[in-house]
Input
Amino acid sequence: MFLPQTDATAAETQEAERARREGYSRVEQWANEAIPGEIRQGVTITVQEVQCGDPDCAPIDTAVAIMFP
Output
């Protein structure tokens, strides 16, 4: 049923998660840089992956939410 992860598998999983978090940070930084400086104060940017149910698009999409105060 559920097999324990080996050290190699756990390390691969951790590395993939680290790379994903770095990617999210890069997208957040790009979005922040695209917002004009005079309205950037207090902006919250979140990035996440979402599954697309449409068979004609990629199975995973990146959603960026930009919330202004």
About this structure: The CA atoms of residues 14 and 20 lie 10 Å apart. The first strand starts at residue 44 and ends at 51. The chain has a mean pLDDT of 89. DSSP finds one helix and two strands in the chain.
